[in-house]
Amino acid sequence: MRLPELTRRRLLAATGMAAAVPWLASCGAEAQAKSFPVSKSEAEWRRALTRDQYYVLREAGTERAFTSPLNKEKRKGTFACPGCGQALYSSAHKYDSGTGWPSFWQAINAKAVGTSTDYKIGYPRTEVHCARCGGHLGHIFGDGPRPTGKRHCINGLALTFEPA
């Protein structure tokens, strides 16, 4: 068996991949690595959340578009974190983005959510998480309505709704 010839192109590709592996492995881990006021063991999180909520909040998963009943929620009220109960978004800031996920143009207040950079799909995105427990909520994009121009694209599984 003949080994492939080591060319400059193959060497650069191999070096680039070797350098990228640790970086890719840490993608999205920033929010989980920080300490938060509410901290639970993995077993405690699994007991407190449904399997699907655990997937989204603790494993940074994404629910299928157009599957959350909260996407169509029009009543006045507050959207909170199912992991810790922190109020995250107000119905006054909710709008129909047409994307299939509940969307808001801002959080209920500046201290309700935190952000980190997520490179999971190969380019940077702004991940949004609960500032109290670190649960993954979704992402923030720059294509929202006025006055902020932001779209907080949030998994419905990462929210509970309390009517006013």
What is the string of helix and strand elements? HHHHEEEEEEEEE
Percent in helix:
10-25%
Number of helical regions: 4
The CATH superfamily label reads Peptide methionine sulfoxide reductase
CATH architecture: Beta Complex
Largest sheet: 6 strands, antiparallel
Counting structural domains, the number is 1
Into which percentage range does the β-strand content fall? Answer: 15-25%
Q: What's the average pLDDT?
A: 87
Using the coordinates shown, work out and report the CATH topology.
Metal Binding Protein, Guanine Nucleotide Exchange Factor, Chain A
Strands across the major sheet, in which order? 3-4-8-7-6-5
Silhouette: globular
Low-confidence stretches: 14-30
Radius of gyration over alpha carbons? 19 Å
Supply the CATH class.
Answer: Mainly Beta
Strand count = 9
Kindly report how far apart the N and C termini lie: 72 Å
- The SS-based structural class is alpha+beta
Question: How is this structure best summarized?
Answer:
The protein is of the alpha+beta class. It contains four helices and nine strands.
Overall description:
Strand 1 and strand 2 (87-90) form a beta hairpin. The chain has helices at 8-25, 30-33, 42-48, 51-59, and strands at residues 77-80, 87-90, 94-95, 103-104, 113-118, 125-130, 136-141, 151-154, 160-163. It is built from four helices and nine strands. The model is unreliable at 14-30 (pLDDT under 50). The strands form two sheets. The chain has a six-stranded antiparallel β-sheet with strand order 3-4-8-7-6-5. Strands 2-1-9 form a three-stranded antiparallel β-sheet, with no helix packed on it. The N and C termini lie far apart (72 Å). With 164 residues, it is an alpha+beta fold. It has one domain: Peptide methionine sulfoxide reductase (Metal Binding Protein, Guanine Nucleotide Exchange Factor, Chain A, Beta Complex).
